[in-house]
Amino acid sequence: MTEHFIFSGHDTEDLAAEYGTPLYVFSEDILLSKAASLKNAFESAGADYEINYAGKAFLNTAVCRILDREGLSLDTASGGELYTALAAGFDPARITLHGSNKSERELREALEAGIGRIVVDSEDELARIDALTREYGIRAEILFRINPGVDAHTNELINTGKTDTKFGLPLDCAARVILQTAQMPYVDTIGLHAHIGSQVTDEEAFVAEAEIMSGLYRELLERGLPLRELNLGGGFGIAYRTGDETFEPEIYIPKMVERIRGIFETEGLPMPRLMIEPGRFLSAEAGITLYTIGTVKEIEGVRTYVSVDGGMADNPRPALYGADYEALVCGRRLTPENAKKVRVSGKACETDTLIGEIELAAPRTGDILAVRHTGAYNYTMASNYNRLAKPAVVLLSGEKSGVIVERETYEDLTSRDRIPDWL
Ligand SMILES: Cc1ncc(COP(=O)(O)O)c(C=O)c1O
Known about the structure:
Elements: E1 6-7, E2 10-11, H1 12-19, E3 23-27, H2 28-44, E4 49-54, H3 61-69, E5 73-76, H4 79-87, E6 95-97, H5 104-113, E7 117-120, H6 123-136, E8 140-147, E9 150-151, E10 158-159, E11 169-170, H7 171-178, E12 187-193, H8 204-222, E13 229-231, H9 249-266, E14 273-276, H10 280-283, E15 287-299, E16 303-308, H11 317-321, E17 327-329, E18 339-345, E19 353-361, E20 368-372, E21 392-397, E22 400-405, H12 410-414
Parallel strand pairs: 3-21, 4-5, 4-14, 5-6, 6-7, 7-8, 8-11, 8-12, 12-13, 13-14, 16-18
Antiparallel strand pairs: 1-2, 3-15, 9-10, 15-16, 15-20, 17-20, 18-19, 21-22
This protein binds pyridoxal-5'-phosphate (PLP).
Pyridoxal-5'-phosphate binds near residues 75, 198, 233, 235 and 376.
């Protein structure tokens, strides 16, 4: 048996040797199996549904190609994400534009591309969409982002009724704002949206969210708006570390659909199409980051620091949120004899702790280290802090591997710098 860490059928040491480190590695097979788990669960629940992958988690043209080919829909949150999808040839009808502060330019780009839906976040934005659709003479199908007062960010379900957030319309003024669309000649309100947080591990918070929004949904339908969709947002949780709870679609989606069906039946309403916007659920486990171990520093009586050739510039989540990750030495199996407790640090001129404490198999300078489940919010959140060049992204599809984002070079780092002629 090989001692090497095999990821999605590929030897990770070979990938590091071929493509260099630090390296983002992304598996199409894992992405598709995660998508299939959601699709199968909705199918078995007999639901009318749509999966809108949240591009903010991991997006580039190759991934757009895969998603489009698989018939998934795409949630974009900026003109840049929308541009990426369109550049990849993604079907505009299955693209949604989100954002709490969309610029006029972004709204124009969305209308000109004829994208499927815009999720409206404020009364201000609605006025802009009304004016732009009149100017173009183009119809827009919109959903409204509602702040239902359900906060699933902590593991406890908090229903404050009033969450202090920049996102969405507060529930108590939503009807007044949304009903304005009845007078807008080119704007159709087709649904309601809410996103209640991340790392949700069962159906409870989604059902609470649907229940709260069902009253508003009924009021709007009764007032003649053509509602047909309920978008529950993203937030389906994954296990970053062994033993973490995870959202299991085959258990929780049928329960969620059944309970939401019950709510709508009780209200005497037709069951809407259920939309979800998973980001990390689809992409996090599909990605790993490969690093080369540089300095190993043993501080007597304190701890051992293992430093890698990347860090917070390619994965800011530990520094931003105290996020947890697991890692392993790719070429050496962990045994009780070689297990060494260490801290994994990045190379940035900050504390830059990637993993506070973990057992690694006798880590040495030159070893390849894999950090797991980095497929979401790593590449998309990466920066050039310390003028570190961003890593390449390699896609694994079955036995094939290929670069889908090239490694940045030193020249890339200065390519947009300008020195005014008076300097
Ligand atoms: C509106 C919206 N939808 C979907 C998502 C995706 O969340 P996750 O990656 O946790 O599924 C986010 C994440 O911030 C979001 O803000």
